[in-house]
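W.,

You were right to be curious about this one. When I first looked at the sequence I had no strong expectations either way, so I just let the prediction run and decided to look at it fresh. Below is the sequence, 309 residues in total, followed by the output.
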Amino acid sequence: MIHSIIENVKITPHSGHLASYIPALANQSKDLFAACLVDERGEILSFGDANYSFTLQSISKVMSFIVAAEHLGLEKILEKVDVEPTGDPFNSIVRLEVAEKGKPFNPMINAGAITVASLLPGDDVEARVNSVKQYLAQITGHEHTVNEEVYRSELETAYRNRAIANYLKANDYLEGTVEEALETYLQLCSLEVNTEDLAKFGLFLASDGLIAGENKNLITHKTAQFSKALMMTCGLYNASGKYAATIGIPMKSGVSGGVLCAVRNGEIEHLRGYIGIAVFSPMIDEIGNSVKGMIFLKQLSDQYHLSVF
């Protein structure tokens, strides 16, 4: 059945656009499509361009939040960033001006993620980025690198994010300098993964931080709980409510075309139990979500009854 979903999605006419506001992402092929599913027994289903590497972009916000929360504790993080949906675009500045003392609404929008990036363990940008890379490597089983072309492309055009960071600094939410926070955030957005890596991370979240095959939890249950709640309510920008209702699983998207998903208890073909799902297709809608990625996940959720509701 899943093969028919894949074929339906692949023949769907192209719609949406590449994330051309990041020049390096404008060069991706519109025809790329990949999906990967991993269950708690290590069983894997993969389709399409599964070995193609793409940058995390906003999916990195989940990973940064986890590392910062484990480092400082959730209470400390929540002093700096709230956990409320905004209903606004991910790069909006408006809410900072109307919120109490300019506090970012959640870690899944740029303002919150830039704040969290400044709270990561380490005394400089390299150390903070490495703290996330090390967590990710423990979950995927290999090292991950920053795509320098994408990073430089984003850094050179980060006018709006720099404005957000300056506003945050003025209201005493950033640790360190504006440039350090911005460089950390953008390097994490530029980390490369493929769909199998991302599916393994989804499995890690679905199982509340259990490292596959090692029978140990890398993070606390509370951190995992908050992360999945944030993905469900804020993970798809200002379409999060719609997709919570129509797909109904914790998800986080990025403008490169990736989507991370965590299924608590599912049955998909021969896969059972905790399941991590990742999909990649670079054409995104006006909100920033992968067009074919969301079509795939909607059909998958409907076919296999994955919604938590």
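Here's what jumped out at me. The chain has a mean pLDDT of 93. And, maybe more interesting for your project: The chain is about 45% helix and 15% strand.

Coffee later to discuss?

I.
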